[in-house]
Write a structure and sequence with these properties.
The strands form four sheets. This protein has a nine-stranded mixed β-sheet, sandwiched between helices. It folds into two domains: about 5-235, P-loop containing nucleotide triphosphate hydrolases (Rossmann fold), CATH 3.40.50; about 250-485, P-loop containing nucleotide triphosphate hydrolases (Rossmann fold, 3-Layer(aba) Sandwich). The longest helix is centred in the first third of the chain and has 19 residues, at about 105-125. Helices cover about 30% and strands about 25% of the residues. Helix 6 crosses helix 7. The chain has about 500 residues and is an alpha/beta fold.
Length: about 500
């Protein structure tokens, strides 16, 4: 049933989110897309939702048989017993031998019989929701654009006075994508386009776009989706400004006094901290120190692991005194292994949103930026995608830790093509340097928008007893170059902890 605002559900929660409330009832909609993009599945969801609401549904099919439709439904665990399926081709064959005509026969003679068959079926069932699948067969039979448009107009005029919400389905071949019929779009109240994109590597990506919807303030642009058992799972494009809520930007402490002092108390709530450095420098361990301390305080945390296997990370962190498994069992920590080749940016953002909004996550770790980049093949949109997700987390008062690997070990190092300062509020830099014949690590804070921070460079040690931050390396010059010179009168470096180092 339509709501008080004249809206009705599309049968898909994600699409209703894109439409900011659902479809306008009793209108004609065009659902177009390439083969395999999910049109039939979405159309069936639309009818099944109506059946659950006590609204009779009718599926008029020219392209698929009753058996094929039921096969699609069975793959999703659905039953179509409450939906009427009308095979137009089979009905025309039963209508009489005189209806069997060649494609050279004038379309106008066949039009009347076709409309009569549909009209009789609609009058018999009295549906509230109708799917007409598909227009591509009509286009082939018509052999002429004018006759084809006349048929679509006849369908619209037939359904207009009835209390019916209609989906007409249209297949777009590869040649037709980008050459859509503007006249057909103008006839419909709304146009929804589904696309299936084949990438050079990894799973095919699917996305949805609402081309138009008269009188509705919908979310424009592309929205990623996947087809899983149960239907289309659509992820509305994230708009950070829609999710702002008040919070107090208090510091998030790591549990290591010297590290907190270096950071001016710690990262603030609602900020993003970039942890940067070469491979093996301790970026993940420093980030896990913040995660562990937050869990110890009883806060909910989430880790999205692109690079390292979860089992390896847990065993390595435990060897350093950070027992994360205990907090996972207690429900304070969620860790998700992300496979870049199998996930779209929209799905990843939706996973983060679900963890924040339904589970109350207060600290999020993304490991790493390189893995996130791999999930987005269109680099042109990378900075905008990252910025929108981080802005959303910031406006929800979530503290975000983003690991950014650097290329190189000592000397000059690069951080990739992304603008670090654009996506972060604070930057923690870890570097290797050589002293007394050993490889050592230095940690410093390059910036902190949310407050003061130390401008010194301190030594960093990570061993089986955890993270240790030493005194400022004031007796060294050129630590950040990786080849420092010792200029002090005494040895300023930290001593080993002995056993268990």
């Amino acid at each position: 049933m339509a709501g008080t605002d004249g809206r009705t559900s599309s049968g898909n929660e994600g699409l209703d989110g894109v439409l900011r409330g659902g479809l306008v009832a009793n209108r004609l909609y065009l659902l177009e897309g390439s083969p395999g993009s999910g049109k039939t599945t979405l159309a069936l969801q639309f009818l099944l939702d109506g059946a659950d609401r006590g609204e009779p549904g009718l599926y008029v099919t020219l392209s698929e048989t009753d058996e094929e439709l039921r096969g699609v439904a069975a793959a999703h665990g659905w039953s179509l017993d409450k939906i009427s399926i009308f095979e137009l081709a089979a009905a025309e064959e039963a209508f009489g031998a005189e209806r069997q005509q060649s494609i050279l026969h004038p379309w106008e003679n066949e039009l009347g019989g076709t409309i009569k068959l549909i009209k009789d079926q609609v009058q018999r069932i009295k549906p509230r929701r109708v799917v007409f699948d598909s227009l591509s067969e009509m286009r082939l039979l018509a052999q002429d654009p004018l006759r084809y448009r006349r048929q679509v107009l006849a369908l619209k005029q037939f359904f207009a006075p009835l209390d019916v919400t209609v989906f007409i389905v249209d297949d777009l071949t590869g040649e037709e994508v980008g050459q859509r019929d503007a006249h057909l779009h103008s006839l419909c109240h709304g146009v929804i386009t589904l696309q299936r994109l084949t990438l050079e590597f990894g799973a095919a990506r699917r996305r949805l776009e609402v081309q138009k919807l008269r009188g509705v303030d919908f979310i424009g642009g592309y929205h990623d989706f996947v087809i899983r058992k149960g239907g289309l799972e659509i992820y509305p494009r994230l708009i950070a400004s829609d999710h702002e809520e008040p919070f107090i930007g208090d510091p998030v402490q790591s549990g290591v006094t010297e590290l907190d002092e270096l950071m001016g108390g710690g990262p603030r709530r609602g900020t993003t901290t970039l942890v940067s450095g070469p491979a093996g420098a301790g970026k993940t361990t420093i980030s896990l120190q913040y995660i562990f301390a937050a869990c110890e305080r009883g806060e909910r945390c989430a880790i999205y692991e692109f690079d390292e296997r979860i089992g390896t990370m847990l065993s390595r962190s435990k060897a350093m005194g950070l027992d994360l498994a205990r907090h996972i069992e207690a429900g304070r920590l969620a860790i998700q292994q992300i496979h870049p080749a199998e996930i779209s940016p929209g799905e990843f953002a939706w996973r983060v949103r679900r963890e924040v909004e339904t589970q109350g996550a207060r600290l999020v770790l993304i490991d790493s930026l390189n893995g996130y980049m791999a999930a987005m093949p269109q680099e042109q949109q990378l900075v905008l995608q990252v910025h929108e997700l981080l802005s959303y987390l910031n406006q929800r008062g979530v503290t975000t830790l983003l690991i950014n690997p650097q290329s190189g070990l000592v000397g000059s190092m690069t951080t990739g093509t992304i603008n670090i300062s654009y996506v972060s509020d604070a930057v923690i830099l870890i570097r290797f340097f050589e002293a007394e014949g050993r490889i050592r690590k230095a940690i410093s804070i390059l910036k902190n928008r949310s407050g003061e921070h130390e401008d010194v460079i301190r030594e960093l040690r990570i061993d089986s007893r955890g993270v240790r931050v030493g005194a400022p390396l004031s007796e060294f010059r050129g630590v950040l170059t990786g080849t420092p010179q010792y200029v002090g009168p005494r040895a300023p470096l930290m001593e080993d902890r002995g056993a268990g180092r």
